[in-house]
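To close the section, here is one more complete example, presented without commentary so you can practise reading it yourself. The ligand is calcium ion.
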Amino acid sequence: MALRATNVDFLKQDNACQHHTSEYDNSHLIVRRGQPFQLKITFDRQLTQRDKIALQFTTGSRPMKSNGTLIYLELNAASHPNDWCAKVQDYQGKECTVSVNTSANAIIGKYFLSVITGRGVVYMTGDCPIYLLCNPWCQDDNVYMPNEDERKEYVLNDTGYIYVGSQSNIKARPWNFGQHEEDVLDCCFFLLDRSGLKPAARRDPVILSRKFSALVNSNDDNGVLTGNWSGNYGAGCSPTSWTGSSAIIQSYYKTKRPVLFGQCWVFSGVITTVMRCIGIPARSVTNFSSAHDTEENLKIDFYMNDRGEKLDDYCSDSIWNFHVWNDVWMKRPDLPSGYDGWQAIDATPQEPSEGIFQCGPCSLTAIKEGMVYLPYDAKFVFAEVNADKIEWLVKEQNGEEYLNVIREEKKSIGKFISTKAVNKNLRQDITTEYKPIEGSEEERKTFQTACGHLKSDACLVFAAPPAPPSPPGIKIQVTGEKELPPGNPLSLNILVENQSNETKTVSVTAGCQLQTYTGKIIASLASTVQTIDVAAKQVATIPVNVAADQYMKSMTQVDDELMIRLNVITETKEGQEKNSECLVIPFAYPPIKVEMPETGKINEDFHCTFTFKNTLSIPLEKCELHVEGLGIFRLEKFNHGDVKPGGIFRSKIICAPKKAGEKKIVAELISKQIKGIHAEKIINITN
Ligand SMILES: [Ca+2]
Ligand SMILES: [Ca+2]
Ligand SMILES: [Ca+2]
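Output:
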């Protein structure tokens, strides 16, 4: 009588534990490639030596042996190490435990299993797919990461921080990556199916990460998230309102339509989630004073007028207070040796690469060495972290415009490149992974190398070695508030110090503007132009004052977090010595207070209270509180309307945790006047 399989037990609990997939909110078996997993197969009678049993795994819509989408494994057949195989581990009566090994280079995705025991005698596991992921624990996988703490952070940690703000005021924004939440893994594979990526390409983390950098933005392919920097987000959610990625991915999976709206940190958060979810180690990376070089000449032209105001329409280049992208960890068999390890990818739609909005992966080592011709998009990322900045002064005389170079600044782009540290809730500075130390000979050498690989020779002039330092002359310093509570006046002092031994006549130009994090100017607030004599070794002080009314109106009109920028330019009478200084002053916000116990138990209720007091002198209109706790509760929104100065509101959630472990509650407050208030609190849940 022909043998027939009657049941397959996927031994989900044991396998998930071995494969580090227990956290996924998914009822199916999830395993990682290149590592054995066990199945218990039940047959309709006792097994004998003569029985021939085979397992067949298929993935994709047209499974074929030739492209690796159909794998046929005879039990106990000879096999190469690191290749697919199935071996009997144990059998007892009608039950047989089989150990299946997959190739460390297998296609990732959903597989279906059939047990074949004779011609036409097939048992199919039908609607129970097995999910196969990349495996950073497996030495033969191209995403292998040797350090366990790093794997825990970059693959398994589902919460973290994304760094925002400005280089003088770096803020940690709590972010729920949520790669294990319901539907997230299914959405990743749905995106891959829709992308039309050939099955064979789905083995390769280089191609997968490049493809996902495209699929996360909605440009070209109706991908996950639509970028918007207009300041008007009425058609969807404001980019500042998100607390994490999983709500975005779940919404996309449900509607199959792009989610509105994101800016760079949201794109980065979503791609960290997607990469960690499919098993590629990933981190969100923030670059402060980040250049966006539109002409690929590795220099950023920055124009100011004779009121000290930045001019937006002179050049499409820009310098963002910060830009967030990602590093993913993998080998680069497609490159010469030496470029394995972290690779930058970027899902924020900025410049098309090979015709579509995608960026990377490009090796951090290649960027550090200036090897900008190496794929993919190394030139663009190099410019972001290490372009030179050329400051121009645009003067009008007799109806004609004159452009003067104020200075060539080689150290101001690419500051404090930051990511969350491994295993600690701290910021880690990774600038030296991207470039040699600023000011070093090596840094200039790298820049020269990069320029040598450009198509045009446009930037060679600026790649010349720096001019010898000039004798001490005029030095500018700005003192005053480091942060400004909205509604308060701003008062700053420009200190012009004459370090030389003779009196100097100096023209001082200063302009104060309101800007977004991408450097876009929203309003001009104040300007001062003065010519003063500064005696030898003396300091002259020039005050700059801005009343609250001057900026508050613009704050309510633009739905972004804004900052104040001050530009100062000094020129000595003879025009021999030019100097400039710029300062970004962020707004300071009242805190959200989160109160809850430090520990809790599974399925036991606890209360979590969010309190906000408006300590500002202005009313806050349309206050909305967004809160989320992975494994405790999904994103919740509370509308609190207008909150007067001194006013308090409180929101409360009764939580019933479902999973054990350290859990984080994240809160985000947005209002018409101000954005960017976040808070978090950790609770330890035990069984
Ligand atoms: Ca896209
Ligand atoms: Ca440029
Ligand atoms: Ca530099």
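Once you have examined the tokens, check your reading against these statements. The pocket of calcium ion (ligand 2) is lined by residues 293, 295, 297, 299-300, 317 (CB under 6 Å). The chain is about 15% helix and 40% strand.
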